[in-house]
Design goal:
Blueprint: H1 6-9, H2 13-25, H3 32-54, H4 84-98, E1 105-111, E2 125-129, E3 142-145, H5 149-157, E4 162-164, H6 167-173, E5 181-184, H7 196-199, H8 215-224, E6 226-230, E7 235-242
Parallel strand pairs: 3-4, 3-5
Antiparallel strand pairs: 1-7, 2-6
Length: 243
């Protein structure tokens, strides 16, 4: 039943079988098609190289300063910049038009030049600043390391979330205690070395103002302060206000 349809399954099979005896008696035919294909390949590569050389470098269009119409392509014009008061007014206007939450946060992106004269970059860092006008009622949880009972009582009176000594190390390593910031008095620092790798940049230090004798001042800074982080690209992103 399948014999009459064999040609449909293998088109051109009867022609190849007819030519086969001629191949046995004579010399093997020259495979000109392989050489031709190889030549074509080289030619195509050469053509591509020539086309690449002929391509002209496209010049970047000079940006125009200010559009004259209401509808325009933004990438043809310089990015506008506004004074602080004007920008704040625009944010308030957009909030009214979009019916968004009126107390939403305002964020800022600061691009820092981290290069020094000796061609060394400043490593990324984090710090905390106490703003003169707070825009949020949120307070951070702060742990105070001290073994002095009087200092511990002062820490509790000034809003410390957790107060203790070396007995807290185990709970911190096991993630049983989690707070936003850690401060300490100098006397206990030699006993806190096991926490150095765990806390990393939150490890108490004088450089970050989290190590000292003035417990009320440290608690105010880290409970009410705003933390900002400078990333690898020298960019600082943080919130600064509410609309």
């Amino acid at each position: 039943v399948l014999a009459p349809r064999r040609g449909c399954i293998f088109p051109g099979l009867h022609q190849r079988l007819a030519v086969a005896p001629a191949l046995v008696s004579g010399a093997p035919p020259a495979r000109s098609y392989a050489a031709a294909a190889k030549t074509a390949k080289k030619g195509s590569q050469k053509t591509k190289q020539e086309e690449t050389k002929k391509k002209q470098v496209t010049k970047r269009r000079l940006l125009m300063s200010k559009p004259v119409d209401d509808v325009y392509l933004t990438w043809y014009y310089e990015r506008p910049s506004y004074d602080l008061e004007e920008a704040v007014g625009m944010l308030k206007k957009f909030q009214e038009l979009d019916f968004t939450y009126p107390k939403q946060y305002v964020y800022i992106n600061v691009f820092l030049d981290m290069a020094l004269q000796k061609k060394k970059k400043v490593d990324p860092f984090a710090s905390t600043v106490l703003l003169p006008y707070r825009f949020t009622d949120e307070t951070n949880k702060v742990l105070v390391f001290t073994e002095n009972e009087q200092e511990a009582e002062i820490a509790r009176e000034n809003g410390a979330a957790v107060v203790g000594g070396v007995e807290l190390i185990k709970w911190i390593l096991e993630d049983e205690i989690q707070v936003d910031f850690y401060v300490a008095v100098p006397a206990i620092m030699p006993k806190l070395i096991p926490l150095r790798n765990k806390l990393r940049r939150k490890y108490p230090s004088t450089k970050r103002n989290s190590l000292g004798h003035d417990i009320p001042k440290m608690l105010q800074l880290f409970r009410e302060g705003l933390e900002y982080v400078v990333e690898d690209d020298g960019i600082m992103k943080t919130r600064i206000a509410r609309v």
